[in-house]
Amino acid sequence: MRIIKTTDRDSGAVLKEIINRVSRDNVEIEKNVRNILSDVEREGDKAVIRYTELYDGISLKPSKIRISRDKVKGAFRSLDRKSLKSLNISAGRIRRFHEKERLNSWFTEEDGSILGQIRRPLSRVGVYVPGGKAAYPSSVLMNVMPAKVAGVSEIAMCVPMPKGDINPYILAAAEIVGVTEIYGIGGAQAIGAMAYGTKTISRVDKIVGPGNIYVATAKRLVFGMVDIDMVAGPSEILIIADENADPEFIAADLLSQAEHDEMASSILVTTSESLAKETEKELSRQLLKTQRKAIASRSLGRYGVIIITKNLTEAIKIANEISPEHLEVMVKRPFKVIDKIRNAGAVFLGPWTPEALGDYSAGPNHVLPTGGTARFFSPLGVEDFMKRTSLLSFSRKGLERIGDTVIRMADLEGLKAHGESVRIRLRKRG
Length: 430
Fold this sequence. Notes:
globular, alpha/beta
């Protein structure tokens, strides 16, 4: 990894390169995805099957798009006891965390009026689960559990089958959290099927879940037809550390993100030059033992950096500017600085809180804003699967209290019929 100081002339350019590593406007990819979505909207299952054969090498019949209940139950039964226990423990912790997020409908009565907000769950949600470079049962738990807590009744899951089969851990996780339908398709065609609906797959209200650039682009393009969670980019971690931090811990946590894919970003921001050098040595040592060494090496080489700052205040300022998906704080008193941290998807405080806890079993959701969008996006949660409806009920007395104000506002905007709809009531005798 590169080591730079904030006093270096090119330090800003290095950070800008890392932050802007993902192009959000790939014209060629968007053109291809638009064609796929258009075909799926027009042809339905026929287009889904054609593109699945083209990209995944699988020839499907409409009756085979949906994964049978027998196959799901078989996968669940095939799991060893320890794996099943781990999935259940993780699911339980995620459920308990999200249960604390639930908000109820509310009503208030004042001056002859009843005002309120009705909160209802979405009826039908689509979940996309990647099935390419690795299997992600954790994505099933994290994307589905807040929807279940919200009260969503129908959850359709799409997962690609590049080798003609689905990882049993994904199917088992889906069974644990109560996915109602599973379809063995992926890519932009799966997003299109969930957004527009086909004969086999009913359209959904919202699509959530990570995917490659084609999936992310498809989600962005169908937004408005359906809701989406966010357009997520490659994974990223930023660690703020002082001289008290352990370089062995830091190196391990940087590698935990670098192994995701070649576009992942791992950044250490430290006040200690000696820690920077020790971490670089430790990274080289641990990298040799990493199973996904080639991926991690490319990630660290291209989008990894160690930044030496003048003080902790400068380190926090850099973190807020980058707005990372995952932010670890390994300083002597981490809770002392939490109020100064403004932008991060999730914050991990202290040396005994590695980011991997959040990925799997701690409880908070691991679907987090990336690419600097933590400035305005939040983690996936129960509220993302709810919709709000405003409620208003006025008595005659209540209308009389604000009627003149409403009429004046309507007159200001030149919408006389609006004002008349109030006047006609005020003229009416009880």
